[in-house]
Structure formats: structure tokens, C-alpha cells
Amino acid sequence: MITEKIGSYSLFVQGFRDANVTDSEKVLRELRGTFQGIDLQLLRADRVAGKEQIIFAARNAVDSFQSKDRRAKHLSMEFLLFASGEHQIIEAIKLLGVTASSRELGLVGLSEASLDANLLSNRAMESVKGIPDDTVLQIKTRKKAEDLKRAYNIPDKELYASKMPTEDDDNVLKRLIVERSALLALEN
User: Fold this and answer.
1) What's the Rg (C-alpha) of the chain?
2) CA 60, CA 98: separation in Å to the nearest integer?
3) CA end-to-end span of the chain, whole Å?
4) pTM assigned to the model
């Protein structure tokens, strides 16, 4: 479980493995009904390049949502746009939306009110029928790195051109994905 303060908001992130979600919208509706005042979003963990991507997207989403430049009606959707680096909600959902075949996922919550992270984690575990495991959010296999490059349209040429002398491939990939979120923020 990851918790962090972002301005007046508390950020909650929990990864899950071996999840079984047949209807992600239903799960989100139930969780949102139980935890009112918390903007919740489910993500495919195989499309997340580490907690840095989530934290950066959350910061941008909060800043954008509190300005006149917001793109979405709900902070959870604003977050999804920044996490995906996409301009359109439909494209963000295609990239990061949980499907019936998703077994690794992340739950992200943003709240201005106090947040019982353990209660939220336990309730989410029941809802997604998964085991809490934040390592699913990390790049830990070559397959995940290759899948991320494909999902975010990052060719090897860009990866190697962006690499600093002491930087490993996974950190470069993570940085390039975060940069896509940064570019979205600059367009506001």
C-alpha cells in the first residue's frame, strides 16, 4: 500500500494480484458507495510503470482539476487521463481500463477527507477478489517492459536515444511514460 499527501489530497494506491473482476464498473460503484468522498479508479497493473507514474499523474490531475483547465467531471477520470497520457477518456480507458481478463490491477484513491487506508484496502481486496501486492505496479519482467513499450508506443530507438549513461532500460521506460503525462499537463 502506498499513501502520500498531494496538496490537500491524500493519495492511496494498492496493487492486487490474482484478481477476478468481471465488471469493473460495478466494483467501482460499490467501492465508491462505501467510501463516499474518495475518488477511486481501477487500473490494469500491466500498463503501470511503477508508483512514480501514479504519483506524477495524481499530482497533475489534482492541479488540473482545481484549475479552470480540467478535462473531466470527476477527479478519478482526470487522474486516468494523466496516468495514460491520453487526451480522450475513451482512449485512456482502452489503455488502462480493467477488463475481465485482468488479473493484476491497481486501485487508486484521492480524497480531501481523512482516509482509512487499511479499511479501503481490505474492502477492495474483497471486491476484486485479489491478494494485495504492490509489486504488480513495478516493471519486474522483460515481458512487462515490452508490453509497456507497445502500449505507450515507445520504440527501441526512442528508448536508447533517451538513455543516460548510468540509467537502466526500465528506468528510461518509466521516465518516458511519465513524460507522456507531463506533455499532457503542458498542453493545459
Assistant:
1) 16
2) 22
3) 31
4) 0.90
pLDDT number for residue 188: 58
Q: Is the pLDDT of residue 70 over 90?
A: no
Three-state SS across the chain?
CEEEEECCEEEEEEEEECCCCCCHHHHHHHHHHHCCCEEEEEEEHHHCCCHHHHHHHHHHHHHHHCCCCCCCCCHHHHHHHHHHCCCCHHHHHHHHCCCCCCCCEEEEEEECCCCCHHHHHHHHHHHHCCEECHHHHCCCCHHHHHHHHHHCCCCHHHHHHHCCCCCCHHHHHHHHHHHHHHHHHHCC
Question: 7 pLDDT band (50/70/90 cuts)?
Answer: confident
All three cell numbers of 64: 488540473
Lowest mean pLDDT among 16-25, 40-49, 113-122: 113-122
Name the maximum alpha-carbon separation found in the chain.
Answer: 49
Structural contact between residues 133 and 127, judged by C-beta atoms closer than 8 angstroms: no
Cα angle 131-135-178, degrees, rounded to a multiple of 5: 130
Spell 126-161 as b/e; 16+ CB within 10 A means b.
ebbebebebebbbbeeeebbeebbebbebeeeebee
Asked if pLDDT for residue 182 goes beyond 90, the answer is: no
Q: Which amino acid is at 7?
A: G
pLDDT of res. 46: 95
